[in-house]
């Protein structure tokens, strides 16, 4: 007969962008079995049913976060990630972070790259039931060339540094892509753009040739594995689009040609502007320099018109928080990208919810199977007080979340046990520059 769960009395947001409607939801095992009157009729013939009274609640798909680095552990810098992490401890800490994410109503994530590529191990442990956590798909090490990446001379000229792997030439590209596929990646990630230290004033630049990017996609696609790219700047976007990348992160700084290529190729874009939005809005409170605050404000503003163009052309914008850094701690900001889409890109709250659910199932490689309240789809469901279709920020109020259901199982939302700070895990700050003129004005 299977296990049955009956959710009744609530208002359903189904993830398609349609307006909320009153309906019951009947779940059998890990799938949604019936909706509305059909659910009400079928439940009358079932003997053992777990029931959830959702009166006064919104019933909607569990959120999907397509840019969440569980192994970074709220790092304050790449230096911490590259040199302060240990493999076994890192994946244990990541498993704790996975529980934080679940309690925020996020039932699925894409972890694009991780230290020691250990997101693959966490994914498999979650799937096997050893660890509680969201549904996961993963990349491994992000591929860069010797000049690429976003951390300059912190990255070694060859091999692995943190979550990066340097590949030089065709043979290394082919070998590494195939090795990652053998290890079980769901996606290949490429840092198409990076900061070259001496030319940092030019911003991120495309650091791959067209031939190299074509080769990455040729090898990965031949094995049925999609490719995602970190792209800032028009040239990076254009080369990734021409190479047939399957998804783009950021896609900032696009010119007219780049925008049209993304539209023509129908490439989903994950802007991942939560980090920038948090620094822009709260940077003064945490001591961020005004120059950096202004930089991130400009990045958001310059993205408005290109992203509106993509939306108007029907290109999916999907939600990713880039959680894993101190500016975007786990469990706090997974809704924030939806706010950016509403406040800056002109989406309605229902359109933004679709971006974080049905459209985001693409990143999970489960389009049409996940992120929908629909018979036959996986029963990843969130029950929350209030109406997010009227106020999207409600999805960031974890105290309002009453039920999180993953694979048809209602999860224990009890607070996680507190933990101590790990010794040697984070790099202590010496603070800001001590100017003699500032601290000893009487001597000037």
TrEMBL record:
InterPro entries: Amidohydro-rel, Metallo-dep_Hydrolase, OTAase-like. Signal peptide: none annotated. Residues 58-409 form the Amidohydrolase-related domain. CDD domains: Met_dep_hydrolase_A (cd01299). It comes from the Bacteria. PANTHER family: ALPHA-D-RIBOSE 1-METHYLPHOSPHONATE 5-TRIPHOSPHATE DIPHOSPHATASE. This is Amidohydrolase family protein.
């Amino acid at each position: 007969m299977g296990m049955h769960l009956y959710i009744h009395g609530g208002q359903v947001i189904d993830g398609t962008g349609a307006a909320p409607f009153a309906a019951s939801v009947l779940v059998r095992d890990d799938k949604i079995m019936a909706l509305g009157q059909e659910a009400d009729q079928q439940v009358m013939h079932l003997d053992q049913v777990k029931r959830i009274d959702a009166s006064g609640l919104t019933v909607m798909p569990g959120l999907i976060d397509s840019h969440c680095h569980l192994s970074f552990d709220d790092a304050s810098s790449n230096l911490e990630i590259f040199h302060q992490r240990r493999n076994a401890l890192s994946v244990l800490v990541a498993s704790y972070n996975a529980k934080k994410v679940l309690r925020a109503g996020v039932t699925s994530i894409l972890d694009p790259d991780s230290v020691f590529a250990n997101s693959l191990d966490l994914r498999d442990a979650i799937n096997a039931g050893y660890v509680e956590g969201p549904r996961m798909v993963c990349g491994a090490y992000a591929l860069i060339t010797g000049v690429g990446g976003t951390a300059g001379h912190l990255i070694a000229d060859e091999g692995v540094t943190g979550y990066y792997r340097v590949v030089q030439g065709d043979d290394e590209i082919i070998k590494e892509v195939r090795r990652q596929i053998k290890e079980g990646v769901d996606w290949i990630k490429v840092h198409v753009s990076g900061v070259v230290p001496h030319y940092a004033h030019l911003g991120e630049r495309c650091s791959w040739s067209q031939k190299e990017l074509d080769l990455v996609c040729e090898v990965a696609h031949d094995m049925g594995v999609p490719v995602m790219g970190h792209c800032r700047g028009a040239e990076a976007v254009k080369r990734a689009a021409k190479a047939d990348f399957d998804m783009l992160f950021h896609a900032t700084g696009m010119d007219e040609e780049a925008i049209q290529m993304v539209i023509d190729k129908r490439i989903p874009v994950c802007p991942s502007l939560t980090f920038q939005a948090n620094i822009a809005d709260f940077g003064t409170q945490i001591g961020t320099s005004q120059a950096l605050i202004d930089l991130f404000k400009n990045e958001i503003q310059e993205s408005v018109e290109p992203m509106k163009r993509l939306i108007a052309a029907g290109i999916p914008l999907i939600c990713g928080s880039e959680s894993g850094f101190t500016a975007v701690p786990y469990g706090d900001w997974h809704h924030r990208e939806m706010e950016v889409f509403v406040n800056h890109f002109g989406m309605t709250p229902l359109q933004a919810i679709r971006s974080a659910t049905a459209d985001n199932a693409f990143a999970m490689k489960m389009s049409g199977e996940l992120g929908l309240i629909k018979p036959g789809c996986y029963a990843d469901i969130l029950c929350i007080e209030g109406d997010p279709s009227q106020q999207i920020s409600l999805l960031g109020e974890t105290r309002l979340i009453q039920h999180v259901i993953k694979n048809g199982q209602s999860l224990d939302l009890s607070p996680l046990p507190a933990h101590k700070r790990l010794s040697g895990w984070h790099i202590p700050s010496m603070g800001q520059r001590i100017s003699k003129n500032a601290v000893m004005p009487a001597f000037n």
